[in-house]
Amino acid sequence: MSSAPAAPAPYTVAVRALCEFTAKAGDLDLRFTPAPTALEGIAGHALVTGRRAADYEAEVRLQGAHGALQVRGRADGFDAARQRLEEIKTHRGDLARQPAAQRALHWAQLKIYGALLCAERGLPALTLALVYFDIASQRETVFEERHEAAALQGFFAQQCQRFLAWAAQEQAHRAARDAALAALAFPHPAFRPGQRELAEAVYRAAARGRPLLAQAPTGIGKTVGTLFPLLKACPGKRIDKLFYLAAKTPGRQLALDALARIAPPGQPLRVLELTAREKSCEHPDKACHGESCPLARGFYDRLPAARSAAVAAGPLARATLREVALAHQVCPYYLGQELARWADVVVGDYNYWFDGSAMLYALALQNEWRVGVLVDEAHNLVDRGRAMYSAGMQRGTVRALAREAPAALRRPLERLDRQWRALLAEDERPYSTREAPPAAWATALQNAATALGDYLANAAPGASHPLDGALQSFWFEALQLLRLVQSFGPHSMVDVARLPAGRGTGRNDAELHIRNLIPAEFLAPRLAAAWSSTLFSATLAPPDFYRNTLGLPGDAPFVDIASPYAAEQLRVRVADGISTRFADRQASAAPIAALMAQQYLAQPGNYLAFFSSYDYLDLVANAFAQAHPAIPHWRQTRRMDEAERQAFLGRFAPGGAGIGFAVLGGSFGEGIDLPGDRLIGAFVATLGLPQVNPVNEEMRRRMQEAFGAGYDYAYLYPGLRKVVQAAGRVIRSREDRGVIVLIDARFTRRAVRALLPAWWPLTHTAA
Fold first, then answer.
1. 520-529 and 381-388 helices cross at what angle (nearest 10)?
2. Could you report the per-residue pLDDT of 536-572, keeping only the tens digit for each?
3. Following CA atoms 100, 103, 109, 111 in sequence, which dihedral angle do they give, to the nearest 10 degrees?
4. Which domain holds residue 125?
5. 751 and 631 within one domain
6. pTM of the model
7. Beta bridge partners of 738
């Protein structure tokens, strides 16, 4: 006797995602609203709902089904007494300029919510109200329609029906994907030493839904060793998406290459690479709307075909995504944004998850995805996190705009400049810090930003002003600062620096910065939102530094993978007779040059020499060139472009010989691979300690207050991390042999040696 086949599991979709799939049409058009910020949107919603009666229900969670489709979402508010369901949208500018397609999308969302509410509460009819709240005037514009429950149910069924074929395809894809991942085999004949231990730690973290810090040496295959186990965990733990986040382009390419080995083309795994807008734009001279850009014109009409072609195209690295987009005459950047909803693995920059307006983070919350996050070279996330939540402004920019701006903007910009003048009069020192953002200055900035937003939103189509580009850039700058004003706390600082002649735009020019010092408060919610986050790097010691600064739980596991390399592969010499302290640098140039030449002549080959700054690099390189002109050498220079960086690396040819001079912590200090005799040694002429300046001293003070380890957190740990990263360029595999020369007596200190890899065999040498 056979049993009836099991009913298919329902496919769940959010109301917003459903409507964006079925109800968007026409052009891509970013003109209406320079949109309110997220904080302004939240505040606007709160203000509107706060005006309602006491029994008003806000954030009404709703769900319903149509066949195998489960639809869920949250309606903004319901007034039971008036039987009125509201959808609240914040905006700037004249609603008459709102594209009809955008209004139609909002009505579609509201009708779906109305259908779900009527079904859930047995309502025969309902008033639907689109409430547009103007951030500037704080006025509500309301559009109402009365709908019978049957009509709303019909609309709901119609939208679901349009989505059902895609949902069935997605269900089939998910089933095939999970079956393939469950059967996934390791892509190499065997694990490398240390790689299995790393993979097992990542799998355990994914199985338990925990974060993980993983320190693993270069060369053991960290990319495959993290991707493979997380992919294997996806079926059993119902992980919807895997996000692989890298600090730099080479890290993204390593991930794409690893994924191609783990799941070759033909496997049911959708891989998408996200690229920055400026690198994806086909028409940088055009605006993002149909009257300007041909790839925005009719974008949503052509999107369904482009989307279907893209998900069938196999892995979507940048070049493939562009090819599909142009074949369907849609924008590659915005096609990539759309496809992030349907990809299994997304490879992109840190900012897609950790930034204040991070797209992947927002989509994960909106769609209630269960995601696994891999953070490559995670030691970079401390500084990148600080940069994401820092911003600055020059007074000279305000003065220049106030002189030339349209008449409607001059008064608010002039008021802002007066607050700048008052701010500088309060403290005449060249550099000063504040306990909090200056209140009067922040108010003037808010007023100027509001005026700018209104001006940009209400500009007549086709009209322009010579300063429009500068005004928009300044508006974005102001909004970022205002977001940081609203979120300001002990994790950040405010400083004001007067600019010397030549750097600013005239007398009394100055810069104000809100600088994030401890990014933990901002990054912690993003790490917590992931089912599992694995942060991995060759340098994540000591782990408490990263737990504390990144916002990981105090009990987040840390795994330290032992090096597979033997001590005999590497000689590590400490030249403790030379001081590289700032006061001793002039005197150190000749001894360092002699030491480098001695090592080179004893063992000719390719070497890298690292220095703490370009000035120090040039000082020693000049001394070296003068004393040893027969030894080839080449230098990293300021602001190298991609071709120049490739030419620098190209000098490290197999069988070659010479010394490349580079800056510690720069583009050649990590993320480059020069195996075999392309690199046989490195000189590190510094501890890499950050410069002692007012900002870093404030960092030291804050770190002392927060963690009781001010000097270590602000100077020692960041410096030694750069040293270990740079020296790690030498040994890349079990076949490599090389030498590292650490130049400074401080490398012999116990606290310093504790931060160097335990397997390094340190010896002393006379300088």
1. 110
2. 999 999 999 999 999 999 999 999 999 988 888 999 9
3. -90
4. 11-164
5. yes
6. 0.92
7. 570
